[in-house]
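Continuing the batch. This is chain 6 of the set; chains 1 through 5 are on the previous pages. Same settings as before, nothing changed between runs. Recording input and output for traceability.
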Amino acid sequence: MLFRRSLIPMIIVIPIIIALLSGATALGYQASIVRYAKVPALAVSMLENGSYVGSISWIEVRVISPGSGVVYVSTEPLSDIDLQASARAAVMIASYLSNIDPFKYDYLISVRADAPIIGGPSAGSAMVAAIYSALTNTSLDPRVASTGMILPDGLIGPVGGVPEKVVAAATSGFKIIAIPWGQSIYSEVRYVRQSIGPITVIRPASFSVNVSDLANRYGASVVEVGTAEELLSVFTDGLFRVSNVSMKPFLTDAEVSILYNAYRNLSMLQEKSLYSALEKLRGVGDRGIYSSINTFIASSRSYRNTSQSLLESGYYYPALSNIFTSYYIARLAENLASAYSSRDAGSYARSYIDNIERMLDNYRHLWSQYTNKQAYGINEIYILPEVFKRVYDAEENINTSMAYLGYGDVINALYYASYAEARLRSIDAWISLMGVYPGYRVDREYVYRISSWIYSYASTSLSYLESLASSTGYQIPWIQDLETRASQASKLLGRGDLIGSTSISMDILVNTTLTIHAMFSTNITGLSEIVRREAMRTLNDLGEASPISSRLYMQMGDYLLNSGNHAGAVGLYEQALIILRTSKLLIGQSLSLNQSQRVPAILNTGATEARNNGVNTTTAGVPQASEGSNTIANQNKGLEPSYMISRFIIFIAVGVIVVTVFIAIYIHRRAKIYHGI
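Output for chain 6:
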């Protein structure tokens, strides 16, 4: 009886506490749909007889606020996994083009079709349009339908079944059909039956379909789009303006002066190494080594001649690249001549590698000073990834050199060590370029935000690549290396090496994009033109504020393009494009600092799977900032009022619990005393 009496205060207070906590939860964690958009997506379905027919599916996007970048995908009927991956890429591209932080919201993407969809990536372009419309509250032209992959660089990639999709769209009343560039003339292989007497032969035959003419027959027209920007221009009837391409990559006088001095320094080092190699060549007794050294000397001279011609033509970065190659080959010739004219080639190699390791240590120390900065000049953010890339590259080559020396392979040991030395010597020019345009300063917490965003996008792109490779059976020998690098980027971000993480993430983005292009793009000439056009558009938007690194890569890409190396040019243009888009993020201040640092996740809520098995979640993790870091401290400054109120209510509830417990104990003890217990 006494125990029951002591519980009376708690019985009275518990409902009050529950009410308080419920109110706190409602205030602190309430989310709502703030935007909605619905667009058609063209697909291909399989009939019972095995043939294919075009179909119309519908994509609905609901934007939830507040959110943290989670992407929910619901498909009915259940779709291929590549649809989930393309949804993730679409969110990143659409949010970038909207100039909106993708982590401010969560996204519900619903795909409805009358029949099972064959191949998910072709819905990527429609997803971009729908997400952009929802994020910006922009109306889309109801006459437009689209098909096409969305690629990590924002390009629209080729898809299958274009004729069937166009017919389905046109017969459904759509008048404008956006298709990937280069697919107006659609080629495909079909299997045809041919009877020869009593024998029926089935053979493959190549067919080409003029998709534009096909659409015209149904009263519709086809528009080729190469990029997400061009796609949005079609969907918004020109409201989304695509920048013109009128400017060539430029260099300022100060930048040219630094590049010219860097060229002159490497040229002097090349001359010195070449002279030393020729002097020591006389003491080399091994005829095979002697012949190899002569070959290296001739190669070094050839690259030097090319570099001089490029310098005179105003191709400063290609000239610098060629004199760099000339130097490290000359240095290799000198090292081989020195090693094999000495008493012990192995001892010489070991001593030389030790010297380069000490040189590397100096640059490691320099890099550590940059990683601990609390604010960065805007130019540092663009150029320091180039410094990191060269330090990292030199370190890898030194490790490879030591491994070869351990195997007793002196020639390869000296080759990798010579390259590492040249790589380190190229860093000074980049450091000098940082002082040309210091610009405004960016706080470390904002740099963390940008680094996290780029890492997130790199992880998304890598998942997209793996999904596409899995669905197509495409073998990617270097996928493990990309996964390893992604892990390195994550660790660096967690340790606070923000620029190092950014550098590796950018490299992953370039490589995943190039691999996807290799998987699906057959017209490398057209691809090089489109990627260049996209990079130049972004360069035009930024003007004089464009990063020097992007302009140098553009110049190198132009040189390779004019030399007929389209594949090499695409790689350089992709690097420039990623740097330029990072620059737009910084200049536009499009990412707010008081939002969550989480990476977008994918929740697959396919109709059948969701009913039977619940919801499966796949989340790519980003290392969290350490306790007490500037980023975490800053987040508390930007808390929503409702969240602050909810915290206050929770504190009150906790206080009530504590007071109630003390009252109960007090009543119980008083009762024991009263009854003489």
